[in-house]
Specification:
With 393 residues, the chain is α+β, with helices and mostly antiparallel strands. It is built from 13 helices and 13 strands. The strands form 3 sheets. A 9-stranded antiparallel β-sheet has the order 5-6-7-8-13-12-11-10-9, with helices on both faces. A two-stranded antiparallel sheet has the order 1-2. The protein has a two-stranded antiparallel ribbon with strand order 3-4.
Length: 393
């Protein structure tokens, strides 16, 4: 297998995939010292593997369709192809942006900036998720795509090796990169989901844009807001690449937004911190609250430039809801802000988060709590005050 153009030969590609999955530590050592180019990583490894979930998902959608609760649906071929192509493109762009983030954060965690090494990490760490994408060819097996979470372990093993990060900083470095990857995933999903609905039948895409809006999936998208969000996203990407970005809010300032008590819970502990590099700098204040045996954590996080990326979901009006066996999860807008909530009625474990001003994330989670209590905790932070802080910053 060529070191510069990994996976040029199919046999070499298969061997590299097997080795990174079965012998990650030894394989990362090999990858660390082999020469490579960004174009070589894309053409020889990323593109062939990223095609697996794209093609499998396309076949699954056309042949089997999607189904839930006894209802099945097959999208039009044009819609399925369009969604697959856009999703594939978003994956390739995601690898690029993730590599920039990895490279930019390296010095913060005692590592060495090296663009090629960062691209190696971004490219090879995604192996498990791309390979697991083959299960999308048959929707009922889609749950097995969760095996792709093994990519997080690959990231943890490869990141400190290639970026020369001290062992004691490997875990926090990995966690920050994973958070960035999650944000990228949310943005990619927000972009692809509406496109998948295009052409799905009468009333799903009606007429030409009117009064600055377009109807997609039976919902109206404000084109002005979409354009503004796109500009923010572009500016955020430039900040990440150029090393310029908003300075993180002082953690002590964020601490001031945490109430002493909320919903009958008393604050017992507060932790603060900040870190990052360039446009990916951020800060956080988190409080722990107790009431009897119940515990609740409330946090305020400054996402920096990453908040603008997450704001794309708001522009598209992303909404989803699922419920099964006493558990539910919802994503959508509440009072004009993107929120996500999940709750297990049996264990009484819940999580609630809200994106504020495309910059701050307020999150509440706990065990032995009610969703009303979590929402009350988030509201006690004062979303309007944070929006004012976001505008001032």
């Amino acid at each position: 297998m060529s070191a510069v153009e990994p996976g040029t030969a199919s046999a070499g590609l298969v061997e590299r995939v097997k080795s990174i999955l079965l012998r990650p530590s030894a394989t990362w050592d090999v990858i660390d010292v082999e020469p490579a180019t960004i174009s070589g990583l894309y053409k020889g490894y990323v593109i062939p593997l990223a095609l697996i979930p794209a093609v499998a998902g396309l076949i699954g959608a056309i042949v089997f369709g999607f189904g839930a609760f006894g209802i099945s649906f097959k999208p039009p071929i044009l819609s399925a192809v369009l969604g697959s192509v856009v999703g594939f493109g978003a994956t390739l762009l995601g690898v690029y942006v993730l590599a920039l983030i990895i490279d930019g954060l390296a010095p913060t965690f005692g590592g060495e900036k090296n663009r090629i090494q960062a691209f190696k990490v971004a490219a090879y760490a995604g192996t498990a998720s791309w390979v697991a994408g083959v299960f999308e060819i048959y929707p009922p097996l889609g749950i097995l795509a969760l095996l792709g979470l093994y990519s997080l372990f690959l990231l943890y093993k490869g990141l400190p090796r290639l970026m020369k990060t001290p062992e004691d900083k490997a875990m926090p470095y990995t966690i920050v990169v994973i958070i960035a990857a999650i944000v990228l995933g949310i943005v990619a999903g927000a972009i692809v989901s509406p496109i998948m609905r295009l052409g799905m039948g009468s009333g799903m895409m009606a007429g030409a844009p009117a009064a600055g809006t377009v109807a997609v999936g039976g919902k109206s998208i404000d084109l002005a807001k979409l354009e503004a969000a796109s500009k923010k996203m572009e500016a955020a990407a430039k900040q990440i690449e150029s090393g310029e970005g908003p300075a993180p809010t002082n953690p002590d300032v964020l601490k001031g937004y945490l109430p002493d008590s909320v919903a009958g819970y008393s604050r017992t502990e507060v932790t603060t911190g900040s870190g990052g590099a360039a446009g990916m700098s951020g800060s956080q204040a988190e409080g722990t609250y107790a009431r009897g045996d119940s515990r609740l954590q409330l946090s305020v996080t400054d996402l920096g430039a990453a908040g603008a990326l997450a704001g794309m979901a708001s522009a598209f009006g992303v909404q989803s809801s699922s419920e099964s066996e006493g558990k539910y999860e919802k994503i959508g807008k509440v009072d004009g802000r993107m929120t996500q909530e999940s709750y297990d009625k049996t264990s009484k474990h819940g999580e609630y988060s809200v994106l504020i001003g495309d910059r701050f994330m307020v999150a509440a989670k706990g065990d032995g709590v009610s969703m009303d209590e979590l929402k009350a905790a988030a509201a006690a932070v004062g979303p309007a005050r944070l929006e004012a802080l976001a505008k001032a910053g």
